[in-house]
Amino acid sequence: MADTSEQRSSAIRTPDQRLRVFVSSTLVELAAERGAARAAIEQLRLAPVMFESGARPHPAQALYRAYLAQSDVFIGIYADSYGWIGPGMTISGLEDEFQLAADMPRLLYVKSPAPRREPALGRMLDRIKAGGHTSYTKFADATQLQELILTDLATLLAERFDDPRRDVQSIVAPSPVTTLVGRDDDVNQIVGLLHASERRLVVLTGAGGIGKTRLALAAMERSAQQWPDGVAFVDLSAISDGRLVPDAIVSALDLVVQGREHSLDALRRRLSDRKMLIVLDNFEQVLDAAPLIVDLLQRAPHLHVLVTSRVALRVRGEQEWRVDALEVPPANGDPAKLAQAPALRLFVERVRDVQPGFELTSENAPALAELCRQLGGLPLALELAAAWMRLLTPEQMLTQLYGRLEQPGALVDLPDRQQTLTNTISWSYDLLSPSARELLTRLSVFAAPFTVDGVVAVCGADDADVVEDLSILLDSSMVSPSERPDRQRGFQLLDPIRRFAAARLEQADHTLGRLHLYVLDVIEAANDRLGSQDLLMRRLDSEQPNLQVVIEWIGRNGKPSGPLLRALGDVWVWLLACGHLRQSSELWQQIQALPDDGLRTESDRLALRWLQVNRLLNDGAFAEAGTLVDEMLPSARRIEMPARIAFLLTARAIVLSYAARDEARANFEEALSVARAADDSLALGYALPHYGLLLAIDGDVTQAQARHQQTLDIASSLNDQNLIAEAHYDLALDVMLLGDPSSAQSHLDVAVGCYRDFDHLDGLTRCIGAFSALALQRGDSHLAARLIGAAAAARDNIGLTAWPSVTELERRTTDRVRARLPDDAFSALVDSGRSLTIKDALAEARARLGPTPVRAA
């Protein structure tokens, strides 16, 4: 019997766990009446349990007993026949069913008149009447029977199952089979929102596959104790008609709709005094039901509702909580640092599900981190990718990534809409209006977080329409808020969504051409300050990925590259400060790969060569840089603006060794003369500090200090953070030579703060060298030696070479430190300093030198 019961349980129990009503009668004789009973039961949204619904591989007695064991209400319908008496039985199956149902509510109906009623049935009915515990009602035909059952069931349920305080905590939500990774803070804050009495409608929004449902379940579980009347989970993914939402909630709560009552009315009645939480999952397809939820909250003042939706509900009282992708690993970092990123933690944990014992190592960490970055930290994408790791190495997965993620079946328990990334994104894409879909495809050209102004410039002809469609995409979680270095309000497409949209973009060249013009406008707006002002640098940082998209498009399509290269040549300070002109820089490699036929004019070719000069300076190829400047100067003097000539002359002086300082002085003097004649304070400001440094090395410290103070005045008037940092670095060296370590430390502190703001690694490394000189002057030779090692290691790691003048200064410091220490002690201290990062070296210098410097003897 137990085996039979288990085999039949799926046929009896419905997915929504409605109350089950067992119908007992003879089959053929009362076929019409059984149909009427089924109709009445289903009208009340209960589950009819009827013998003829099941398969027949088991004995009849075993089947009906299994059915009865899992039923809640018994209905007996009798007419003429007593029914079949099985082998070994003394009563019929009809009477056996009645007796077995003694512990449940029983509704009995007897057809009248029944002139051919069998005596055995008559005696059974007499025994029922004599028992006094159960009565029966007479009926004439199937129509009357249906009305009687409908009324009696509603009354019975109201009396026995519709207690206003009926416990609903038995309602079972889906139980996740995997652990939640990287979401503890989110869960805590969502639970906090749910606990607030003024925030009774909390809506989790986010892109498909971002983990909204999993997060809602975690918040539901963690807050369960605060709901005296329980919690309930309602999956709406199979519903597309908002009018059916109340029915789904009623079903999930296992409530009974009485008589001709509507589901919403039943919810208003039953939930009016309950303090409970209802989770409504996948609401994006039934947004027209949002006002019904608000109505329900108004009628039930202690009810709280947590909604997951790809689209915001846009109703009063809604507290939206946007679920973001998991934080991805940084582009560079050791395995221990990479392993802290939530996206990589989730990925590794899911890989262990299919490959027990899998570990993150220094060998596989870079590939795994890149996988996480390419998938944008989207949890579903990470789980789909991890499922393939039973067959592929991380490196193989990288080369096959998106092809594999479009193959369904990696995780067969997922619904169809989540079997592939395309399915997941299409679910939201199909809900969009045509104009919003078109905007989404055009937004795919942006590689960096974009602003509203950027969207208007690149994607739209009608500002209002574009902004409205952008709002729709944001509400639909196809676009997400994002931070930008310039702190403007930014938005982005997660990388999987961007790839999906790009595949649907028609006339891509037209939109990319507009992106080209937009990037040019951004660069040209920074030209008059060389891209050196703090805000301008952050704006350029924000658009750098879009710049790389444009360069790739220009090269691929044979477009003229001159206008962009000329604009970039005018923001060389930004390119140098941010390391974009190193030989290893991805941006420089793109610039270098541009075809020569894109350079249409002599000015175009000079623009590229000017960038090459700066690249050679950055990489320490000073002789090559000098040769290239010599080649450029004749043409530049003829066609370039005076400022560019002044910069070329300054570069020519910088690259010369200290032994050629007389020639360097002549170049500096001419550069200053050209800049003054053009009344170009910026060109003057960038020539003065280098000239002053040369004067300081030569011992003319007073003249050097005057030029560096003039530099600071110019930099302050222009609010040029890079030049301000340069001036303070140079002034620190000046006052050290004048024997004022206290002022030197103050200047260095300012320089470090400015350089750190825009991550100017070369400037920070020069400051380490200056602190070494300061430590020596303060009598701390051990610190000076460690800082010599730290500066050398930083330059080796980054690929930097100090300017010849800085090299000369730092050589002098090194020689003095070496003279004060035994050879083995000096070497050991320098070696120990090489283990310091730039940040650690500066922190150690600051700690050892102390906040109140004391003048050395």
Number of strands: 12
What profile does the largest beta sheet have?
Answer: 5 strands, parallel
The multimeric state of the shown protein is single chain
Instruction: Provide the low-confidence segments as ranges.
Output: 1-16, 162-170, 852-857
Q: Work out the helicity level.
A: 55-70%
Structural class: alpha/beta
Distance between the termini: 101 Å
What strand order characterises the main sheet?
2-1-3-4-5
Mean pLDDT: 86
The outline comes out as: elongated
As a percent range, the share of strand residues is: 5-15%
- Please report the number of helical segments: 39
Radius of gyration: 39 Å
Write the layout of secondary structure elements.
Blueprint: H1 2-12, E1 20-24, H2 31-43, E2 47-49, H3 60-69, E3 73-78, H4 93-100, E4 106-111, H5 119-131, E5 136-139, H6 142-160, H7 184-195, E6 201-205, H8 212-222, E7 231-235, H9 245-253, H10 263-271, E8 277-281, H11 290-299, E9 304-309, E10 318-322, H12 335-338, H13 342-354, H14 365-374, H15 379-387, H16 394-405, H17 421-429, H18 434-443, H19 452-459, H20 463-475, E11 480-482, E12 490-492, H21 495-502, H22 508-525, H23 534-557, H24 562-569, H25 572-577, H26 586-592, H27 602-618, H28 622-639, H29 642-654, H30 661-677, H31 681-697, H32 701-718, H33 721-737, H34 741-757, H35 761-777, H36 781-798, H37 804-820, H38 823-833, H39 838-849
Parallel strand pairs: 1-2, 1-3, 3-4, 4-5, 6-9, 6-10, 7-8, 8-9
Antiparallel strand pairs: 11-12
Helix pairs in contact: 1-3, 2-6, 7-8, 9-10, 13-15, 14-16, 18-20, 18-21, 19-20, 19-22, 22-23, 24-27, 27-28, 28-29, 29-30, 29-31, 30-31, 31-32, 31-33, 31-37, 32-33, 33-34, 33-35, 34-35, 35-36, 35-37, 35-39, 36-37, 36-38, 36-39
